[in-house]
Each structure stands twice: as structure tokens, then as C-alpha cells.
Amino acid sequence: MKKIRWGIIGSAGIAKRSVIPGIQQSETGEVVALASRSLEKAQDTAKELSIPQAYGSYEALLNDPNVDSVYIPLPNHLHKEWTIHAAEAGKHVLCEKPAALNAAEAEEMAAACEKANVVFAEAFMYRYHPRYALIREMIHSGEMGELRGIHATFTFNNAGDKGNVRYKKAWGGGSLYDVGVYPISVARMLLEEEPQAATVHALFSDAHDDVDMMASGLLEFNRGVALTFDCGMWAAGRNTLEVIGTEGRIEVPSAFVVQQNQQDNFFVITKDGRREVDVPKVNQYALQADALGRSILDGAPLPYPAHDAILDMKVLDACLTSARERRRVKIE
């Protein structure tokens, strides 16, 4: 079977730790090249991860005719620039979340990829895990009764690393950009609709270039349903999801990132008691790569096309405005 030949633009930790191994384990893809601003760094990383070609510039990788698709794990403020460059070079794009700094940038990126007739997707790996198809089925089946709300969290504590790119305001730093996008996207995915307004309260830290280090939010959906969430980079770690209905609820202990010592299973609590739902142990990064691969190879529709990234950014824009201005923001 023909495989998609991937090039990696940058050597960020998420690429080395998760996405590159995921592509290498996928059915449809192989990693053939990696680029860094430093040729030496690119060569070291490529050797470590058994990637045959290393480049000392991103441009050189984009000029490689043996690369079909690129993954972009660069800092957030570089996503737009290199997505557009990749599209112009005829490469399909998987861009790390958040797709851009705002919805206007995401629209430019999507337009550039459409013009070049290349696939574009935002890298939310968790959405490809089969447990979310099960959860959606349970919601649609009525087992939970009428849906009343969703609560999600994603926090970790890395505040001591003052030089981290997450703490550079101009680069798209902050907890809403970094991990708040997960609760936002999961609520949109499960409810299959867009929120109408956002209210967010945040802790901005002078010691971290005035980015939001912790944020708590409310997104208003139809029929009185809401997402309540919190996200943070200066708090004890967790990433959880709870779906609440009139007749039951669903708990996902490791909703977005599943570590080796954590489980993919989730729990359903109804009047009949609490049961654990077994799900297959999978590599969600490999499944993400295969979704793009099948779209590129076979023309299969992407589960989450470029327009979804624009909608995500519209919600994030409202959340950031609400946090800065301390007010409820309507989402058009």
C-alpha cells in the first residue's frame, strides 16, 4: 500500500514524544524527514527517531519532493506562516493545536490550503480515540436522559520553567491556548453545535509575561446546556471529563492525554449503579495520522475538516476577550 511520506517541521517535545512515534505506528504513514533551525539538532533528532533525512531549515524540507505531508509543532505564532508556506509547496498539513492565534488567522490558513488543494487538520489527537464514538452513542441513545451539562479540566504545573514558550505572550502563550482548547473542542464535538457566549475568569501572571496561568470558564449552548471548565499551567495535574444527564453521567478520568500508567476506560453511572466501559488500548496519534492519510490517499472526508479549526478559534477568541475584559462575550 502506498504510504503518506511525512516531514516534521521542528523538533518540539510533543513531536518527539508522541506524534512522530504515532505516525511511525500508523497504517498509512511514514516519517521520511525532519527539519530544525539547527542542522545538528535535526540530525541528532532524526538519528534518535530513525528518520532518514534531516534538514537545517524548514524551507529545505518543504522543497523535498519526497515529502507529501507535514506536521507543524512550532510555537503558536508560527503556525499560520508555515502552514501557508507548506500549502504553497503542495504539502498537506497537520498543525498542532491551537491552529492559530485567532480565527482570522485560521481562516487565512484554511483558504491557503483550499487554494492549493491540500488537506489541513488541527492536531486534536484525542478526538480519534474510539471511546468518544462510544460516548456519543450513549448520549444519542438516551441512556443519560436529557443532557444537562459538561464539565472538563486540563491542568498541569510547569510554572518554574520561566523560559518556556508557553509563557511568551506574543507567541500565543497561556493556558487557554495550550490546554483550554481541549475542553472547548470536546464540548463542541459531543454537543455537535456551537456555543453562543463565553464567560472566563483568569489568573494573569506578571512573572510569566502576563499570560493566563489558570482560567475558569463557562460556555453557553442551546437548551440551557453549558460547558464549565478550568485549565491551567500552575496547578496540580489532571485532565478529566464529566457528561451529566437527567438519568446518568459519564466520567472520563484521563480524557485527553493518556499516560502509560493511566487507563483509556471510562465510567457510566446510572440508577443501576456504576460500570466501567472497556475500550481498546490504542495509539490515538496513530489514529489521527491514519484519518489524514485516508483523506489524502482515498479522498475520505476528514472527521474534523479545516472549518472546524476556524470555529474552535472563534470560541477561543471569545474566551480570551472575556478573560482580559472581565465580561460575557457573545459568539457570532
TrEMBL record:
Coiled coil: none
GO MF: nucleotide binding; oxidoreductase activity
A Pfam cross-reference name: GFO_IDH_MocA_C3
InterPro entries tied to this protein: Gfo/Idh/MocA-like_OxRdtase_N, Gfo/Idh/MocA_domain, GFO_IDH_MocA-like_dom, NAD(P)-bd_dom_sf
Domain Gfo/Idh/MocA-like oxidoreductase N-terminal: 4-122
Stretches assigned to the GFO/IDH/MocA-like oxidoreductase domain: 133-251
Domain of life: Bacteria
Keywords, in A-Z order: Oxidoreductase
Regions that span the bilayer: none
Entry similarity comment: Belongs to the Gfo/Idh/MocA family.
PANTHER family in alphabetical order: OXIDOREDUCTASES (PTHR22604), TRANS-1,2-DIHYDROBENZENE-1,2-DIOL DEHYDROGENASE (PTHR22604:SF105)
Protein known as: Deoxyfructose oxidoreductase
Gene source species: Pullulanibacillus camelliae
